[in-house]
């Protein structure tokens, strides 16, 4: 994992992590019991949270990352600085494959994803590391 020049301040990272960890409390996960919280920092300085929402028909559930990005986009945000994802396990879990492509829709390869474990420790990776050789709207001429 290459070092990342953080595009966010220490204070922004503190808020981002606190909100992602707290968002786990809102998770609706009666089937898996796997709580996930997420928080996005927009380029306008707003923090948008999400939590996973499961469904009895398993594929219908929605991951915390997609809840957060969907909420942000509906609120008019299209530009983001960082994402934090928090789980209760150790080591920290990374976004699933579907979420990686979803996140990539609104970010680029240098976008940082901070992944928090159940003890509050984190690792950070870029979208380029999480989804190498990816494509996004720019590759489709959008």
Explain what the structure shows.
The chain has 142 residues and is of the alpha+beta class. The protein has a single domain (10-135), classed as Cytidine Deaminase, domain 2. Helices cover 26% and strands 21% of the residues. The chain contains four helices and five strands; from the N terminus they run αββαβαββα. The chain has a five-stranded mixed beta sheet. The protein is globular and about 40 Å long. The protein starts with 9 loop residues before the first helix and ends in a 12-residue tail after the last helix. The relative contact order is 0.18.
What's the structural blueprint in terms of helices and strands?
Elements (H helix, E strand, L loop, with lengths): L9 H14 L12 E7 L4 E5 L12 H11 L5 E8 L9 H8 L7 E5 L5 E5 H4 L12
Parallel strand pairs: 3-4
Antiparallel strand pairs: 1-2, 1-3, 4-5
Question: What is this structure, in a nutshell?
Answer:
This protein is about 25% helix and about 20% strand.
Mean pLDDT equals: 93
The gross shape turns out to be globular
How much beta, percentage-wise? 15-25%
Largest sheet: 5 strands, mixed
CATH class: Alpha Beta
Figure out the total of helices.
4
Say how many strands there are: 5
Strand arrangement, largest sheet? 2-1-3-4-5
**Superfamily at the CATH H level?**
Cytidine Deaminase, domain 2
| Radius of gyration over C-alpha positions, nearest whole angstrom | 14 Å
Low-confidence stretches: none
């Amino acid at each position: 994992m290459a070092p990342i020049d953080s595009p966010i301040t220490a204070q922004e990272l503190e808020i981002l992590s606190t909100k992602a960890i707290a968002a786990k409390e809102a998770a609706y996960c009666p089937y898996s019991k796997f709580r996930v919280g997420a928080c996005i920092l927009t380029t306008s300085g707003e923090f948008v949270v999400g939590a996973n929402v499961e469904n009895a028909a398993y594929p219908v559930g929605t991951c915390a990352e997609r809840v957060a990005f969907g909420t942000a986009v509906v609120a008019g945000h299209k530009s983001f600085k960082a994402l934090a994802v928090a789980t209760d396990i150790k080591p920290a879990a990374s976004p699933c494959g579907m979420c990686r492509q979803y996140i990539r829709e609104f970010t680029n390869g240098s976008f940082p994803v901070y992944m928090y474990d159940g003890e509050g420790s984190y690792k950070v990776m870029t979208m380029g590391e999480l989804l190498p050789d990816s494509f996004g709207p720019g590759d489709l001429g959008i």
